[in-house]
Amino acid sequence: MKWGTLYGAEYVNVLYSAVRANLTGDFRFVCLTDDSSGLRSEIETFPIPDIGLKPENWRHGAWPKIALFGHDLYGLTGRALFIDLDTVICGQLGEFFTLGSGLMALDSTPWRGKDGPPSTGTGIFAFDLGSLGYLVDRLRAERDAITEKYDIEQAYVHGEVSPIGYWPQAWIVSYKYHLRPPLLIDRLRGPNPPGPEVRVLCFHGRPRPIDLIRPPAGNWDVFPHYGRGPVPWMVDYWTRHGGRV
């Protein structure tokens, strides 16, 4: 999904190329967007369905993602894999479609070094199209109460869907929790590349992938963390999949 101006067409095109390189056989790559200009011809585009959100719901909490769960999403059928635009594809994706059933998502609880129940993240998830339409129905009927109770869309999904299955931890890592160097060390060296077992690298908030590729002047990380200059392995990924430096 792409709305607003934070992530441009280049993000979609790079993601398509990376998916194509890591998924065998035929697939449909669909982008729901308010602006389809600049997208590759292989990418199918549809408008983001209107599910009755207020303007502030578009700016906070990624609530438009819930539109994916509609009873009928432009006639699309089958197993779907949703991937956030600020995601780096590092390895094969086929098993993301075949492992488990129902809603499969990432569990971010271990990322924070915590034990406890899973915490559902929606940076990447798989589901059967049309099977969770009640999420849209409830949001339409109780929008203000639900957005106040859950604040962000992934908390709503976590609280209202059962059961949820989770990907193996080795498949998905976070830039912030797994690759960012420790404080002070980050003044001396850049972030580590993902290991060979990693299939998906997630970014969330700042820095964004483009900050490691076309960095702004000075520190591109969030103080007291520090990052400076382009990161070679991210530049290689971006250019290999058609992005510009």
Structure characterization notes:
It comes from Fuscovulum blasticum DSM 2131. One of its GO terms (molecular function) is transferase activity. This is Glycosyltransferase. Keywords: Transferase. The chain has 245 residues and is α/β, with parallel strands linked by helices. The chain folds into two domains: 9-168, Alpha-Beta Complex (Spore Coat Polysaccharide Biosynthesis Protein SpsA, Chain A), CATH 3.90.550.10; 174-240, no CATH class. It is 27% helix and 15% strand. The chain is built from nine helices and nine strands. The chain has helices spanning 9-21, 55-59, 94-98, 134-141, 143-150, 153-160, 175-179, 209-213, 232-240; strands spanning 30-32, 44-46, 79-83, 87-89, 103-107, 120-128, 164-166, 172-174, 200-202. The strands form three sheets. It has a four-stranded mixed β-sheet with strand order 3-6-5-7, with helices on one face. Strands 4-9-8 form a three-stranded mixed β-sheet. Strands 1-2 form a two-stranded parallel ribbon. α4 (134-141) crosses α5 (143-150) and α5 crosses α6.
